[in-house]
Amino acid sequence: MSVTLINPAGLPKVDLYRQVSVATGSKMVFIAGQVARDADGGKVGEGDLAAQVEQCYLNVATALAGVGATFDDVVKLTVYFVDTNPDLMPRFLEGVARASAKLGITPQAPLTGIGVAMLAEPDMLVEVEATAVLD
Fold first, then answer.
1. Helical axes 89-103 vs 49-65, angle rounded to 10°
2. pTM (global) more than 0.85
3. CB-based burial of residue 19 (10 Å sphere; 0-12 exposed, 13-18 middle, 19+ buried)?
4. What is the dihedral of CA 30, 33, 38, 42, to 10 degrees?
5. Is 30 helix (H, G, I), strand (E, B) or coil?
6. How many domains does the chain contain in total?
7. Is 62 strand, coil or helix?
8. Is residue 17 within 8 Å of 40, Cβ to Cβ?
9. Which residues span the domain enclosing 78?
10. 3-state DSSP call for residue 22?
11. Are 125 and 91 in contact (CB under 8 A)?
C-alpha cells in the first residue's frame, strides 16, 4: 500500500497535517472514534485535554495494529472536540506530540476537527477516528 501526503499549491500549509492524501491499496479500514479509555475501559486524563488526546492516538495505534496497519497507512483523521476554544489548541498539539513520541511516528494524514456539543460520556473531551488503506 502506498500513501502520498501532499499540500497542493494554492492551499494553506498546515504544520500538523497535509491537505491531501492519495492512497493506493485494496482494503479500507475504518477505525471507530477512540476516546480516553485504557484497555480495561478505565478513564484516562479526566479534565486534561492533552492526556485525553494522547490516549486517543494510542488507542488508534492499537486498533490499527490489530489489523496489521500503522499510522503510515492512515489516509484521514477526524477529531471531535467538546470545547472548540482556540486557546486549547496547544493542549491538543501537546497530546499529539506525546503520543507521537511514544509511538515513534509523525502523523500527517489529513485531519478534520469538528466541534460537538457532547460525546458519549460527560468526561470525554475529545474523540479521534481514523481511516486507513492497506494492500
1. 40
2. yes
3. middle
4. -140
5. strand
6. 1
7. helix
8. no
9. 2-133
10. strand
11. no
Q: What CATH number has the domain bearing residue 93?
A: 3.30.1330.40
**25: closest CA among 73, 60, 70?**
73
Helical segments of 49-120, H only = 49-65, 89-103
The set of residues, in sequence order, having a beta carbon less than 8 Å from that of 11 and lying 6+ positions away, is 19
28: which 3 cell numbers? 479500507
* Across 5-10, average pLDDT: 92
pLDDT for 15-68, tens place per residue? 889 999 999 989 999 999 999 999 999 999 999 999 999 999 999 999 999 999
User: What is the H or E stretch that residue 81 is in?
Assistant: strand 74-81
The cell 490489530 sits on which residue? Answer: 66
DSSP 94: H
- Whether residue 76 is predicted with pLDDT greater than 90 in this model: the reply is yes
| Angle CA 64–67–68, to nearest 5 | 85
Q: What is the C-alpha to C-alpha distance for residues 56 and 49, in angstroms, rounded to an integer? A: 10
